[in-house]
Specification:
Blueprint lengths: L30 H48 L10 H14 L7 H16 L9 H12 L1 H4 L3 E5 L13 E2 L16 E5 L1 H10 L3 H13 L6 H13 L3 H6 L11 H14 L4 H17 L2 E6 L5 E4 L12 H11 L3 H8 L10 H21 L13 H11 L1 H7 L8
Parallel strand pairs: 2-3
Antiparallel strand pairs: 1-3, 4-5
Helix pairs in contact: 1-2, 1-3, 1-10, 2-3, 2-4, 3-4, 4-15, 7-8, 8-12, 10-13, 11-12, 11-14, 14-15, 14-16
Length: 418
């Protein structure tokens, strides 16, 4: 027998291969580093929230992270799950606490924050640490339903230009005529009370708001040179009821701690795109679907009917008023308000609850974007009229999480020869 025929098997062949938990990367990535990068991406939005909501926002963030960490550690011990020290568990727990705080307003009671943390860990993350629905959004939705009077209000406080970071949100001053945060007249007060942008947009669906009916009636009595009813209503909405676009960009509007500053969210999102943790086709599909739905979905901005209610009009996004692009501006307000950018970059791209294939992710994002606008405009509960103004994006993502397995199944590429 030659040496070639008698070769002892190498011991290295029998060495077991260790496979860590997903996500699996071809590069030298670890779960801890992935979660750390996402945490870094949240910093700009959190800093903007601290600037416009002060120490109240800082308190919500601290309570959220601490409560999530404590309950996740306790639940892992009770459920005999692997310790948080393994597989980046601690970083993931911190990330969940930060994202939960970013989705909550600074004025929320600390007990609601604790209950949201419990719901995120126990119901969202579950016994095995594997989940179908994004756990933070599931915990957020649960407290949204039970504490909507604290989480869904038509108005909210914002610190004034001279009291950033150090001001108090308690007892905000009421501003009768509000044009821009920089031009606010209540400079002596630490904070002032401003309207939620989406609360005014919801008036365009009900048709019962007095200012909508007045705008339509004014056009009907004023002749053709005044413009169309749809254009006049959108003009009044933008210039009298909504904050300036610059306020939405810098974050000087009421809302959730990490969802108001569009520039900060875009910076964090670009950071995640650069590292490849979210894909640009998914982001573009989400934004395009939301913009297209907002531009097409009908509103009650037509002529008054026999009951004095404005008629439905399709395609509000193409409306102009005396040469002003009020329709495109209306669509832009949808994209920059209500946590849509927060949902695009930090929730819809969750690596566990999103589809795995590129085509599945695009279909998933289209459903999220269109669903966000439809829920905002048409989901209505009389007992809680503002329930879905701030949580529409979160609910749309959770609904699409339900179809993630189906999207993965139908979007799998066919094997060669089949």
């Amino acid at each position: 027998m030659t040496d070639a025929q008698h070769i002892a098997p190498s011991r290295s062949v029998a060495r077991p291969m260790t496979v860590d938990r997903p996500p699996h990367w071809r590069a030298s990535e670890t779960a801890s580093r992935v979660y750390a990068i996402i945490i870094y991406a949240t910093v700009p939005a959190l800093l903007a929230g601290f600037g416009f909501f002060g120490f109240s926002a800082l308190m919500v963030v601290a309570v959220s992270v601490a409560a999530t960490f404590v309950f996740d550690s306790l639940f892992s011990w009770l459920a005999h799950r692997p310790t948080l020290a393994l597989h980046g568990g601690r970083m993931h727990t911190v990330l969940m606490g930060l994202l939960l705080a970013m989705s909550l307003p600074a004025t929320v009671n600390w007990l609601v924050v604790v209950l949201a943390s419990v719901a995120t860990v126990v119901i969202g993350k579950g016994l095995l640490g594997r989940y179908t629905w994004q756990p933070v959004l599931l915990g957020r939705l649960i407290v949204q339903v039970f504490f909507h009077r604290q989480l869904s209000l038509p108005n909210g406080p914002v610190l004034g230009p001279e009291h950033l970071c150090l001001g108090r949100l308690a007892d905000p001053a009421i501003v009768p005529m509000y044009g821009s945060w920089l031009d606010a007249v209540a400079r002596r007060a630490d904070a002032f009370l401003l309207p939620q942008p989406l609360a005014a947009i919801r008036d365009l669906v009900g048709g019962q708001a007095e200012w909508v009916q007045q705008a339509v009636a004014q056009v009907s009595q004023g002749g053709a040179d005044v413009g169309t009813p749809a254009g006049a209503v959108l003009f009044k909405l933008i210039w009298a009821k909504l904050p300036a676009v610059t306020d939405l960009l810098i974050g000087a509007v009421p809302g959730e701690i990490g969802a108001t500053c569009s520039i900060a969210l875009l910076a964090g999102g670009l950071f995640l795109l650069y590292h490849g943790y979210i894909r640009w086709p998914m982001v573009l599909a989400f934004l395009f679907a939301a913009a297209a739905t907002a531009a097409i979905a009908p509103l009650r901005i037509g002529l008054l009917d026999g009951d004095g209610v404005p008629a439905w009009r399709w395609f509000p996004g193409v409306q102009f008023h005396n040469g002003m692009p009020v329709g495109p501006l209306y669509v832009l307000y949808h994209l920059l308000s209500g946590g849509l950018l927060l949902g695009v970059f930090f929730f819809a791209g969750d690596m566990v609850s999103r589809p795995m294939t590129r085509r599945g992710q695009i279909l998933f994002a289209i459903g999220c974007g269109a669903g966000t606008i439809l829920i905002r405009l048409y989901a209505f509960i009389p007992a809680a009229p503002y329930l879905f103004t701030s949580g529409a994006t979160y609910l749309a993502i959770l609904l699409m999480n339900t179809f993630t397995p189906l999207l993965d199944r139908i979007s799998q590429p066919r094997a060669f020869g089949h």
